[in-house]
Amino acid sequence: MALSDLATPGVAIASVARNRIPRIGVIVALLWLALLAVGALVAAAGLTADPLTNDYTVISQAPSLAHPFGTDNLGRDVFSRSLHGAGSSAVVALVTVFVGGGLGILLGVWAGLRRGIADAITGFLTDVTIALPSLIIVATVVTLAGPSLPTISLTIAAFAIPVFARLSRSATLSIAAENYVVAARTLGASGWRILTREVLPSVLPVMMPFLMTTLATAIISEGALSFLGFGLRPPEPSWGGLIAEGRTQLALAPWVTLLPALLLCVTILAINVLGEHLREAKR
To answer: What's the predicted TM-score (pTM) here?
Structure first.
């Protein structure tokens, strides 16, 4: 009997263990995001406590069955406000991915296929935009236009466009050299058909890990804006705003800051786990 035969079961067990742990992590991440989405929808439907109603009989009350995350210094339910904040973060993240990602990927694929002057101009504009201090500009735009959810979402999405464009252009350059794309060109397929039917379906799987990263980045950006006072106007709930509101109450009511911050951290972790899984699957 060869030594390799003896080693094979151990290698197989180690391989199964390595594969099982990531799968468990992905399942847990999916369950968490699904649970959070259901909670945000339930809150949006008005099935939780009113996040804006003050109840001075339960000011700074510790977490309990009636108030799972406790109450703040105005008697508002922190759990309900956290779920509504999750909805706001989800809107910002989804708008960033669909608007910023959609436009950026189309622009990058188009530039990668056209090359020449179109590619040079697109590359110059993306380089200039990426070099700008995005958070400062977003804060300025939100201040001038008013801190509404559409303004915050679209402004953050605008700064995602050049990053998606650069990455999708890079992917397009390699995909455009594939035989099936060359064959489509030889057969006289239009540029739009090549873009939508040949190249884009191959670029999207490559971009999926970055799409997940962008979800997390958009949520963090919205939270940072709210924390700095450039997000939704109080008393509208957002995760960053809740964390900022609780800073003055850390000694008396630490749950006002810590529990929304925990939701934010776990959500970002779940999204990153899914993004890493997609990245490994692509490899």
So the answer is: 0.83
